Amino acid sequence: MNIVGLPALVDTYENYIWILHDEKQAFVVDPGESIQVLEYLDKHGLELRAILITHQHADHTNGVNALVEAFPKAVVYGPSKSNLSTIQVKCKENDKVTLADDLKFKILDIPGHTKDHIAFYNDDILFCGDTLFTAGCGRILGGTAKQFSNSILKLRELPDNTGFYCAHEYTNTNLKFAQLVEPDNAELTKRIANSAIKYPAIHIGAQSTLGEEKLTNPFLRFDTPALKQRLIERGASDSAESLFNTLRTWKDEFDRAN
Ligand SMILES: [Zn+2]
Fold first, then answer.
1. Range of 109's domain?
2. Domain tally for the chain?
C-alpha cells in the first residue's frame, strides 16, 4: 500500500490529507478539502473506496461531500460519537474495519482533543488525527485533560515500529517547544539536526515512527524524571492528567508568544 500526504489548507491549518492506494483503489483519511484529492485520484487512475474520519472538525471533513459525490460507492467511516450525518459506518473502540485484503484497521477511542476522536491502527501504521502530532499534540478543543492523557498513554503502548501519520505539519514549531522543555534530550537534539520539512510538498510515507515519537515527543514523555520535575515546578501534581495538562498549557503559552 502506498501512502502519501497531500497538503491541505496550506495557508491556515497546514493539514495533510493521507491517501492510501494500491494503484487501483484508494482510501483517504481526514479530507478537509477535496480538490487536490480529486486531482490526485484522477492523475493516478484511482478509485476512491473509503473515507476515514478521525474526528468531526471541519479541517478534517469539509471535503467529504464532494468526494462522495464524485465516488458514490465510497464508504465513510468515522467516530460513533460524531454528529456528522455523512458518516455511514460509526466506529468505536476495538471495532475492526476491513478496507481491502491487505488493509485492515482496529479502532482506538482516543478522546481529549475532541470528545469523539478515534484512531485507525494496525500493526504497521497509525492514523491519529489531531491527538498526537510529530513532536507535539493537539490542543484541548472539546475533550478533557484526563481523557487526553489517557489517550496518549494508550498510544504509547503501541509498538515502536508503528508508522506515524498525523493530520498537520507542525513539526518545526513542535521541535522548538520540545527543545525548550527537554534541553538535555540527546535523541531530540539528533532529531532536530536531521529534520528537513518541505511543506507544502506531497509527503511520501510515514512522518516518523511511534518509537521516534516516544524518544522525542514531550507529550509522550511528561512522566520522565527531568521533564516531570520541570512540570511539578510549574505547579503540576503527580497525576498523568495534571502533568499532561501543565505541559499542554505551557505549549499554549509558547504558541501565543511565537
Ligand atoms: Zn481537530
1. 2-257
2. 1
